[in-house]
Amino acid sequence: MVLELIALQSKRSKIVGSFFKESTQCKQFDAVKAVIGEANRSDRPENSPHANGVNEERSLIEPEPALQSEAKSQLAPKPSLLGACQYSILIVDDDEDNLLYAHYAVEQLGYRVAVASSGRGAIASAFSFCPDMILLDIMLDDISGTDVLRQLRQHKQFEAVPIIAVTALAHDRDRELAMEAGFADYLVKPYMLDALEAMIKQHLPS
User: 3-class SS at 174?
Assistant: First the structure.
């Protein structure tokens, strides 16, 4: 069962397990873990495209070919369990448990989903997947979610895409700074499924 798998691999299994308690999609869950695991391995320093002296000043708005290829092959959207949906959502989080929970939750709501576990991976995936919405963690390991937002907003195709800040930073000032930076909305982790659904539907009305 999926609940047993999560209990073995996550210290926060009670949070994730409460959502997966009725799921029988074991094969799909394993596939999601494989995608995220590969994405995490690609983000490690030894696998970084800059590890061999490549110029780190290269613009993030022009993702390197390796990242684009990875985004197309590993971050490709999975078919929704509820049927085809006109909207697609990119989820960005460097915590594997959070990413698993969000991926499954959004997919169960009927949206097409892609995931990224780093800021640079998020930019590459945004260009290849062309999402209608981005759920973006602010505190990422490589570059901040705010930097990802600013880079994407420089491109015309992302000017109107709702980018939601998803973060554990819950102070009013943190929310104000996020909104001033240009985020369309602000979602505090951990969040309930109904709060996530309401926010998505607010910005992607059916």
Answer: helix
